[in-house]
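Archive entry: two folds, one per protein. Generate the first.
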Amino acid sequence: MAGTLYLCATPIGNLMDMTPRVIEALQNADLIAAEDTRNSIKLLNHFDIHTPMTSYHEYNKVEKAHYLIEQMQLGKNVALITDAGTPAISDPGEVLVAFCHEAGIRVTSLPGPAACITALTLSGLSTRRFCFEGFLPTDKKEKTAVLEECANETRTMIFYEAPHHLKKTLDEFKNAFGNRRITLCRELTKKFETVMPTTIEEAIAYYEENEPRGEYVLVIAGRDRKEMQQEAQKAWEEMSVAEHVKLYEDKGMDRKEAMKQAAKDRGVSKRDIYQALLEE
């Protein structure tokens, strides 16, 4: 019988956030796959856990995943931990989980700390709808594409950033999003936890005078729907009714449907569109 992969969430700063269930899983596992064994040994020692460890990180995530799959196929239980937080969230663990599903190996997740959710709940921004972006791509073209996609995102957005990149990233946010509301969270769950609700422009000004320290979670307000509707309305009004209708006809609509869609865009009746066409 095949073993199980246990995704074990570990503290993001405060060791008191370690759950009894995770401790038990780590103690009973046959093998612990850790992002950085040198970092994780401190955690294991603190909780008197002596289970063997092996490294599983970004640079060996495919090769080592095959090894771990083989171990679980032999009946061994593997516990996966990241340096801090929940495995597979902005983490190479997602590859191992996918491989397990392909191989028919059971995967279970033991809930616990996650920096993205902790920051979201502290942000003061809307939590009803949100999206997690994690770290921006390092490739310049890919980063630009991601920011362009996010520019019209109406959900609250969550990003991760390192202190030495923070100033540049805030400038990029300003160029892509304008002056949105943003909450900067750092040192979450630790003694010097800081939560700073502000605007992007005010954050830029603040960090011109203060050096960023610690790992950041950046929570940004989504685009305002009413503002987007007003901009769209303005764009339609700059176009003649005939051009507007022709736009939809060129897309394959018949004239009746094109007039109906133009009326909807402009917030007027179909009769108004018909009359405008006659006048034009």
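Generate the second and append.
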Amino acid sequence: MRIKFFFLVLASCLLFASCEKQEGEGGLNTIEGYVYIQNLSPTLQKIGTPYPAVDADVFIKYGSSMAIDDDEPTSDSGYFAFKFLMPGDYTIFVESADTILFNNQKSIVISQDINFSKKEQTASVDTVIIYNHLDYDDGTAFITGSVTRTIYHENLPAVEKTTIPAKDKQVFIKDIHELGIVDRYRTADDGTYKIPNIIPGEYYVYTLSEIAPPSDLTALEDSAVGAYITVYDTTTHISIPTFATHEY
């Protein structure tokens, strides 16, 4: 009798286990949310405000699964939804550019965990922010200006000088958050220059000018002649006043 009872209980347990649904499709629960992109400069400064990620892949794992169980692309508004889920534990995740190393070939994973304890729930997860790296020439702003060259003639009084457009003069642009220069350009025949495709950020644009020699006629030195500028999200064109350089 005891043996019969044991097998009856065992059969009931096995039947119950086979009928119990695990995490996955087949239920009435929904996970929904939005994915937005935050652009980063080469110095990993945030550029502008986040905007919807269009057609970005959002992945989901069921329970303790180590594999990707499903994925959904985001809409034009960055929205995604996983529907018809059973009660249980889920993890949604997306891939993002690194936030520590610029142009790292490996992506990082941003994830959120969700638990459904009931049969019909909707979980609206926090907006997922993924990151995108922009080089300095991935923007839409452009900077223009001009450079003049004042030449002081030798063996003549200091008032004797000639001011002309500085042809083929180097102009530099530097991110104020970085040590090195971003790029360099040369002026046209009329002394003008254009720096195209600049992303938002804070910059120093400059050229070099000779300093008047001291009375002992030691070697000339160069100093920077420039301007600090800020390129905003809505900036399309910045015109810089003329840089006046000198030659002795």
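Annotation attached to the second fold: The CA atoms of residues 223 and 242 lie 16 Å apart. The two ends are 116 Å apart (CA to CA).
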